[in-house]
Design goal:
68% helix, mainly alpha, two-stranded antiparallel ribbon, elongated
């Protein structure tokens, strides 16, 4: 399998943006009122599929140096992509490798949420637990992403686009975790612990992921090295 580095990066960014936009849209109360629960649920499912596709592309990037160590010319050349790799020493790879199964958890939870008349126990088992597991994996992924772009975890580098991307995604992961915890269905009431927090966490968390994905495009252009001169010395 071969790909052009610039196109793969753009595909990852746009897939993340579309997936995030679906989650933002799905968590807007007015949208739910307008289209109804089933369509709203399908919106989340579609968003989760885009998330998973983007995450897989990002994993391919992380484990294929030819997809990231490029210059202004080589970014347009097709190069082989590593479909499988094991690089636990690489924080970028760890971030991508943890994020991908997290998106699969969201695939499970969003599909399960389409079930009607589920009991509290069924909702917690098939929707809440995968959602929680996915949020934990997203938090772990974001932690490694921050460590991959900073010498220390708590540093202030606002001029660095990779630093901004890592931290806006960290905030998004924290908000997704808050949403997951708040959406636990109490067996005694058959209601979420805090429905407003669950919705708000999803909305603002997805908005953070949308911003982080959009920043991937200028970050790529800024990171490109000048093309090597082929003129004889």
């Amino acid at each position: 399998m071969k790909a052009r580095p610039e196109r793969l990066n753009a595909a990852v960014a746009w897939l993340f943006m579309v997936g995030s936009a679906c989650f933002v849209l799905g968590s807007v109360p007015a949208y739910l009122d307008a289209v109804g629960g089933p369509v709203d649920g399908v919106t989340y499912v579609i968003g989760s599929v885009f998330f998973t596709s983007a995450s897989f592309g990002q994993l391919l990037q992380a484990q294929t140096p030819a997809m990231t160590t490029v210059d202004e010319e080589s970014q347009h050349r097709r190069a082989p992509v590593r479909l499988v790799d094991w690089a636990p020493h690489d924080r970028n790879w760890l971030a991508a490798a943890l994020q991908f199964p997290g998106t699969l958890c969201f695939n499970v939870s969003t599909v399960a949420a389409l079930t009607h008349n589920a009991t509290a126990a069924e909702s917690n088992r098939y929707v809440w637990r995968p959602d929680l597991y996915g949020s934990v994996l997203f938090l772990a992924s974001s932690t490694y992403a921050v460590l991959a772009v900073s010498a220390r975890f708590l540093t202030w580098e606002p001029r660095s686009l990779p630093w901004r991307i890592a931290w806006v995604n960290m905030v998004g992961s924290i908000l997704f975790m808050a949403s997951a915890l708040a959406s636990y269905v109490s067996p005694s009431t058959d209601a979420a612990l805090n429905a407003r927090l669950a919705v708000a966490g999803t909305f603002f968390g997805a908005a953070c992921f949308l911003v982080g994905a959009a920043l991937m495009l200028p970050a790529w252009r800024r990171a490109l090295r000048p093309a090597r001169s082929t003129a004889p010395p």
